[in-house]
Amino acid sequence: MLDFVQMLGHNSLKFTRRLGGSFCFLCASLLRWPRWRRSFPLLIEQIYFIGVYSLLIIIISAAFIGMVLALQGHNTLEKFSASSQLGQLLALSVIRELGPVICALLFAGRAGSAIAAEIGLMQTTEQLASMEMMGVDPLWRIISPRFWAGFYVMPLLVLIFDMVAILGGYLISVDWLALDAGTFWSNMQSSVDFYTDVVNSVLKGLAFGFVVTWVSVYQGYYAPPNAEGISHATTRAVVYSSVFVLGLDLILTAVMLGGW
Amino acid sequence: MRVKPHIEIMVGFLLLLSIVALSFLAFKVSGLKSYVNKPETYLVHAEFDDIGNLKERASIRLAGVRIGQVVKIHLNPETFRADVVMAIYRKNNLPIDSSLRILTEGLLGTNYLALTPGYSDQSLKEGARIEETHSAMILENLIGQLLYRFKDDDKKDQKKHSKIEHKVVIS
After folding, report:
1. B111-116 and B59-62 as β-strands: parallel, antiparallel, unpaired?
2. B22 and A51 in contact by Cβ < 8 A?
3. Does any CB of chain B come closer than 8 Å to the CB of residue A44?
4. CATH level 3 topology of B39-137
5. Is residue B48 within 8 Å of B81, Cβ to Cβ?
6. Tens of pLDDT along A133-175?
């Protein structure tokens, strides 16, 4: 009995310490005087590696998701002879939910794991330590650009995902299912609001980008310095950031729909 | 430190693509263009007993053509009726004795306001009030009335039958 209580206390203390540690880590890597001239090229490079490399998978999966959604939605809406509302269903579900969430999950799988593995390997081969010896702060040189790049790229990817998914759905519903293009767009326009739907989608993208890169960078930086540690760190980066994204999505949706 | 040019080109391409996506979502998907070249409108009030499911931004139509939209809906605290504020495009000159009905697009569609023009020579001005309004058809009420009518018919039938029986008995 007492062992169980002790285990509980031990684990909760460990959890709290890691939470505090990751927050201090975040503050240390972000709250520093920006040196624009020197850090801007690093940022561009990271945007390239994180954003442009994720672009292809985002576009392909968005097109397929939009198409599948149009087919499924048409199948169900047809039972109520309401298939003219397909554009509305497609746009609202993509912009409000699927866009940010699936984009974040793909981003965690594509970019988050890469960040964690890269930083973990740097830590293992003591590149970060030697950088510190040379008087270069690894938090500034390595961590901070990756973090900002993820934070900056994620909303852009969400926007592109939304557009491609809606165009894919349009292709299926107008060219294949022979719905009227005019009703498709006008029903969509009458139901989607720019400020409450599109802006919220971008805000969700910002929040998810923040969470995914924070988790991945932290897992990579504190990976145990061996091969097994790196593999665990990459797995944990993907798993934790997916879980956090889905949980945060529930909270954000409740706030945005309920108007807390 | 210089960044390689192809990296910069690809990052610029990403940025451009996302700007295209944003403008697509803004203008094509959410119909923001009505904010850009906003047509000139004038505001007109109308009071309804019951507005059903009418929402703000619902369209106002004359003969099926969109002539404006609902701007605001609130309760008039003195008359306990719904006060609907509408913005009507300025190019439309409407008679002052026009009337409004709340109709539904299809069976499950959204509500809109249908305007029936009157015969007066005077036209509606900024801040005018449309007096003649018909409240929304509410399906539950309609079903209720229908059932009531059926019951009445049943009773009448029964009375008729009983009278006939009486007559038969008397004769």
Report:
1. parallel
2. no
3. yes
4. Elongation Factor Tu (Ef-tu); domain 3 (2.40.30)
5. yes
6. 898 888 888 888 888 899 889 999 999 999 999 999 999 998 9
Q: In what order do the strands lie in the sheet with B99-104?
A: B128-130, B41-48, B81-89, B65-76, B59-62, B111-116, B99-104, B132-134
Torsion of CA A90, A93, A94, A98, to 10 degrees: -140
Residues of chain A positioned with their CB less than 8 A from the CB of B2: 41
> Is any Cβ of chain B less than 8 angstroms from the Cβ of A114?
no
User: How far from A148 is each of A29, A35, A43, A56, B19, CA to CA, in Å?
Assistant: 10, 14, 7, 21, 19
Q: Between the CA of residue A251 and those of A23, A46, A243, what are the distances in Å?
A: 20, 30, 13
- Closest by Cβ to B3, choosing from A45, A160, A198: A45
Residues of A in contact with B14 (CB under 8 A): 47, 51-52, 55, 153, 156
The interface predicted TM-score of the complex, written ipTM, equals 0.81
Matching residue, tokens 């990459």: A234
Comparing CA positions, the residue from B73, B90, B113, B85 lying closest to residue B38 is B90
Residues of B in contact with A48 (CB under 8 A): 7, 10-11
